[in-house]
Structure formats: structure tokens, C-alpha cells
Specification:
The protein is about 45% helix and about 15% strand. It contains 10 helices and 8 strands. The chain has an 8-stranded parallel β-sheet with strand order 7-6-5-4-3-2-1-8. α5 packs across α6. The radius of gyration is 17 Å and the shape is globular. The chain binds pyridoxal-5'-phosphate (PLP). Pyridoxal-5'-phosphate binds next to β8 and α10.
Length: about 230
């Protein structure tokens, strides 16, 4: 077994354990392998290990890799997630090459992605990125603006709204971190109570996937624990 294979197995075991502890079914949690700065050769090892969902932060880097891995994408049904900021001048690349975008935080970007989504492609699967802990200079929409944006996105025919995504400030204060995760979960539940049919709470990374799963995360985004520390 390669390291990457072993690391994926170890992360899947962490997910299973966290689910077990929270009395959740591990099938409810998707592992998204974050491949920023990771070469196509290493991604192919993850594919050979059976992994299918990949997340990229930087649009140009991601599009380059998706092109490089076109035959694997076709043969194995790889799913490509854009998890980084999307600028207006990059929306066409995202709309044409990615399956998911987790980082929608304004209507203008959503509209452009919708208009530029190729007609023969499946609707773009999207999450709204929420600035859940009010970090200054941070991407993500304020929690009290999420409902309006969600409503607007629901009217865009080339998009399917799947949920919300958060990137909390790193902290060693476990109680504060738990409170932030819970706030995200409550927002997710509140949106569903309003009638949105959301199934994706994108929350948790290498160092905090257990508490994220305890709070209801359905998708954890893991880079370092699979591919090692980034340069
Ligand atoms: C880099 C990144 C991750 C993965 O972080 P790790 O700590 O390496 O697991 C997850 N989500 C986003 C948005 C990222 O930029």
C-alpha cells in the first residue's frame, strides 16, 4: 500500500469512528480529498485507492488538473469540487469544468456561473459559503443574508442548491470551535425548516473533522491528512 492509500484509509476510519460516536451512519459523510498543490500523479494514486471526490482551491490550477485527469474522470466518475474563492473573471472556467462549487457568497457570481454552465452539463451543485464566526476580511456571506441568497439561487435553472460551507478560524479552544460548528448546523436546519431541501453541510478539515461530524457535517474537506503538509 502507498502512503496515500494508507492515509485515506486512516481518514475513513476517523470518519467511521466519529460517526459511530455520534450515532450516525458513515454513509452520510462524504470525504472530499483536497488536492491544492498536489500533482496529478498523486491524485491518480488516490483514484487507484478508490477515491472519487476531489476539491481544488485555485481555479486555474484545478482546471489544469481536471484536463490532465480527463480519462480518469470519465472512467471512474470523478467528481470535482471548487472550494476556493471564485472571481468574476474565472466563472466561465468553473462553470465549464467543475461539478460542484462550495464557495458561493454573492448573487452576481451565482448568476454568472448559471449563465455560463454548458447546456449539456448537469446543473452545477452549489453550497453557499457562510462567514459563520464573523472573521474580518473573510470570504463568506453573513448568516442573516443566507436565506435571501438561497432563495435567489433556487431560481437559477442551471444550479442545484445543496447546502452551506464554512471555514472557521483555526482555534485550540475546543468549546468555542464546537459552538461555531453548532451555529452552522442550526443555520442548516433552519434553512431546511424554511423549505429548502439541503443535504450538504460542508464542514471540517484534517484537524477538526471529528467535532464537525459530531455537529452534523455531511462533507469533510481533507488535504494534509491525506497528502501530507503543503509546501
Ligand atoms: C486547504 C483547504 C482544506 C483542507 O485543509 P487541511 O487542513 O489540509 O485538511 C479544506 N477546505 C478548504 C476551503 C481549504 O482551502
Amino acid at each position: 500500500m502507498t502512503n496515500i492509500q494508507q492515509n485515506i484509509d486512516a481518514v475513513l476510519q476517523r470518519i467511521a469512528k466519529a460517526c459511530n460516536k455520534a450515532q450516525r451512519n458513515p454513509q452520510e459523510v462524504t470525504l472530499l480529498a483536497v488536492t491544492k498543490t498536489v500533482s496529478p500523479e498523486l491524485i491518480k494514486i488516490a483514484v487507484a485507492a478508490g477515491h472519487r471526490h476531489f476539491g481544488e482551491n485555485y481555479v486555474s490550477e484545478g482546471v489544469e488538473k481536471i484536463a490532465n485527469l480527463q480519462s480518469e474522470t470519465k472512467a471512474f466518475g470523478l467528481v470535482w469540487h471548487c472550494i476556493g474563492p471564485v472571481q468574476s473573471n474565472k466563472t466561465r472556467l468553473v462553470a465549464e469544468h467543475f461539478d460542484w462549487v462550495h464557495s458561493i457568497d454573492r448573487l452576481k457570481i451565482a448568476q454568472r456561473l448559471n449563465d455560463q454552465r454548458p447546456i449539456d452539463a448537469k446543473p452545477l451543485q452549489v453550497c453557499i459559503q457562510v462567514n459563520i464566526d464573523g472573521g474580518a476580511n473573510k470570504s463568506g456571506i453573513a448568516p442573516d443574508e443566507v436565506q435571501a441568497l438561497a432563495q435567489a439561487i433556487q431560481h437559477l435553472p442551471r444550479m442545484q442548491l445543496r447546502g452551506i460551507m464554512i471555514i472557521p478560524e483555526p482555534t485550540t479552544d475546543l468549546i468555542a470551535a464546537q459552538a461555531v460548528n453548532k451555529r452552522a448546523r442550526d443555520l442548516f436546519d433552519a434553512l431546511n425548516t424554511l423549505g429548502f431541501k439541503l443535504d450538504t453541510l460542508s464542514m471540517g478539515m484534517s484537524s477538526d473533522l471529528e467535532p464537525a461530524i459530531a455537529s452534523g457535517s455531511t462533507m469533510v474537506r481533507v488535504g494534509t491528512a491525506i497528502f501530507g503538509a503543503r509546501a
